[in-house]
Amino acid sequence: MRHIISILVENEAGALSRISGLFSARGYNIESLTVAPTEDASMSRMTIVTTGSEDVIEQITKQLNKLVEVVEVVDLSEAEHIERELMLIKVRAGAKEREDMKRVADIFRGRIIDVSDSTYTIELTGDGAKLDAFIHALDPGGIIETVRTGASGIGRGNRILKV
Amino acid sequence: MDRVKGATLTGAEIVVRCLQEEGVQHVFGYPGGAVLFIYDALFKQDKVRHVLVRHEQGAAHAADGYSRSSNKIGVCLVTSGPGVTNAVTGIATAYMDSIPMVVITGQVPTHAIGLDAFQEVDAVGITRPCVKHNFLVKNVADLAMTMKKAFYLARTGRPGPVLVDIPKDVTTQTCEFHYPETVAMRSYNPVRKGHAGQIKKAAQLLLGAKRPMIYTGGGVVLSDASSQLKELVRLLGFPCTNTLMGLGAYPATDRQFLGMLGMHGTYEANLAMQNCDVLLAIGARFDDRVIGDPAHFAQNPRQIIHIDIDPSSISKRVKVDVPIVGNIPDVLDEFLKILKDSKPQDIKAWWQQIEEWRAKDCLKYDRHAKIIKPQFVLEKLHEVTRGEAFVTSDVGQHQMWAAQFYKFDRPRRWINSGGLGTMGFGLPAAMGVQLANPGATVACVTGESSIMMCLQELSTCKQYRLPVKIVNLNNKYMGMVRQWQQFFHGNRYAESYMDALPDFVKLAEGYGHRGVLIDKPADVEPALKEAFGRKNELVFLDFITDQTENVYPMIPGGKGITEMILSEDL
User: What is the largest CA-CA distance in chain A?
Assistant: First the structure.
């Protein structure tokens, strides 16, 4: 099953490789990994999307907690949460496709953030499924380049991960 | 050096001062370019004694043996590049067995890092998967705090090796020295007390058990919880087994002890594990060499209570019913309080069953053989040393026989590489043991293949007059490899025979020690007595043993705990 794990970690050199190294050394999957400092610059927050049985996920959270630089670990997917991912996608947008492309982007609430005479670059935010759906809605030949951040997640309401 | 706090010191002086502040008496190491200033600072003082090994692997193993046999932290000091990579095997060995150790490594100067400089290696990167934690110190102002953290991390929680990588320029920079008195890390707060509710629940389970079993591992030894364990086992009257790493935590000569369990454990211990209805696991981790196939182990229903300082050791291979995370002595104290006046079930029937299993005498071997049986040497070793020696071992058959036949009654006496299974561990570890326990009897049980992996340390033993007794069980084979080839590879002994072995007697003499060859059973005891009588000399005892002897019982890899191969002598 798919799990979203949020990690607060000391913002120190090497912390990222300790975490990614743990996943590769123990054979855990990483579907995506995002990381950036929090409002407290001494700490980073990481979101890892992984898959595995309940036992594997339990081991992942325990092993993460064991790393000396890890401050807090939460499996967001255990309860109500919100997940968002950002995608930038460059598509063919010549005279012929321009209208259509704009319309599809609007339907998905994408924003066109760069325009050339033959391309649009569209910014799209949502959960992974929405971004996938957008890609499927396009003619594969029309996609020039995509870049996705991987999911970031946060708990709903009073579910807070902070120290 | 100025003892007044707040003095301005170089990085190198700070390193040495930190060691002094931590009460470190011995550092095992080997100098080189990147650590020259640290060596210079060591030279100018006399509190910390440096022990010069002959290979950095030896430094790490010696520091490790030093730790295991005392409750002091072993320290090793090596240079950058090959100094670090040579030490890696020793660091990984300590990591797998959770041994507290501090490893100081030199690094190329900060401005040269990443430029493929001479003797540069990414020490922090290369050791990351085999240390509890590691640091690269880029600023001399961080050095004292980092050293403090290194010692703190190494010894607290689930212990382990911690590496501090220090670039050469940091050792020459200066700053004001204050050794921090305390250390606090928001990301690291190991628990001590176990959950009271869980402990109560576990106590109830124990009292209701009809076929109880207590299974303990290295955690009991590492946390010095042996006296509490003994009290608990005797109070309850339950059978107890120890893992390879846990030997000595419960006295092996006691009636309630069923011997070691696992791949080469006793028949009675393995059967009791499988057939118990309540299992109390303490500081052990149900690893593959202990319970074999977890699916087979799960076939019999039983309630499992598991005490461990490391939550990730709980329910990793075997699902646990009552997990208790905490420091073992603290948790056992709570158990003893609760159970003091209570009465467990009558388990006579269970003991009767166990005695039937025990009557099988699964460690039996041919005592009338004309050629020396390795088991016989170890029984005699136990006798001659009155069970009081520190015994280090290498890895293979001799290690298993030592575990089976040297009955350890006290913790921290049995020093072996259980997790990583490092051949070459025994001799350098024995040096550490001897330095941590001056005057004590130290035996290194080894084989002709293992001993050659760190043989160079015979020279260190000479330099520091370490009177280790080397018990070499020489069967000319990598015995355990040969045994597996016999059982599972159709007697095809691929590369497990060693031709052209050295004359170990001359070799020992070449290093300035005494060497003795023993090839008759009748000579075993006199040779041991003679050797152990020489309190100030290293003696290399080369026992020519039966080439075909196997370690029994044996659970083949991947099989269930009761699927043992037993000796044909039974």
Answer: 57
Q: pTM to 2 decimals? A: 0.96
Handedness of CA B217, B222, B227, B231 (dihedral sign): negative
Model confidence at A163, pLDDT cuts 50, 70, 90, reads confident
- pLDDT for residue A130: 96
Q: How far is CA A83 from CA A23, B171, B207, B449, B510, in A?
A: 22, 47, 49, 57, 70
Q: How far is CA B466 from the centre of its chain?
A: 20
* R_g of chain A, CA atoms, integer Å: 18
ipTM of the complex: 0.92
Sign of CA dihedral A126, A127, A132, A137: negative
Active-site residue, from B480, B485, B504, B554: B480
How many CB pairs below 8 Å do chains A and B form together?
37
pLDDT for the residue numbered B499: 86
The verdict on a CB contact (< 8 Å) between B136 and A62 is no
CA angle centred on B403, ends B216 and B546, rounded to 5°: 155
**Which residues from A are below 8 Å from B311, CB to CB?**
62, 65-66
pLDDT value of residue B18: 98
* pLDDT of the residue at B2: 46
Task: Choose among B19, B298, B238, B280: nearest CA to B146.
Answer: B19
Q: Which residues of chain B have pLDDT under 50?
A: 1-2
CA distance B65 to A75: 40
Round to whole Å and give the CA distance between A79 and B169.
Answer: 50
Q: If interface means Cβ-Cβ distance under 8 Å, which residues of chain B face chain A?
A: 124-125, 128-129, 132-133, 136, 153, 158, 185-188, 310-312, 315-316
pLDDT in tens, A1-57: 899 999 999 999 899 999 999 999 999 999 999 999 999 999 999 999 999 999 999
Tokens of A132: 């996938």
Q: A13 to chain B: which residues are within 8 Å by CB?
A: 136
Cα distances from B457 to residues B53, B428, B534, in angstroms, run 6, 6, 20
pLDDT confidence of residue B5: 58
Contacts of B27 (CB under 8 A, 6+ apart): B19, B42, B48, B49, B50, B51, B63, B75, B76, B77
